[in-house]
Design a protein that fits this description.
mainly alpha, about 0% strand, about 60 residues, single chain
């Protein structure tokens, strides 16, 4: 179960614990299985607007033209 999906407070807690940066790092440096898990966690965390802003700044979310 992805806690970031089931609980908005968990998504905020991940951000506050500086947990987004390692997830972004795992997208490109880990095994395919780990990268997939990181991508799913990032997707869930991005439902939170504050997280979405930080994820964009970290390059995890591409902004369209």
């Amino acid at each position: 179960m992805n806690l970031a999906v089931s609980d908005a407070k968990s998504a905020a807690a991940i951000r506050e614990a500086d947990g987004l940066r390692p997830l972004v790092y795992f997208l490109t440096t880990a095994s395919a299985e780990t990268a997939t898990s990181a991508a799913l966690a990032i997707e869930a965390c991005a439902l939170n607007e504050s997280n979405k802003t930080l994820l964009r700044e970290m390059g995890a979310i591409e902004v369209g033209p």
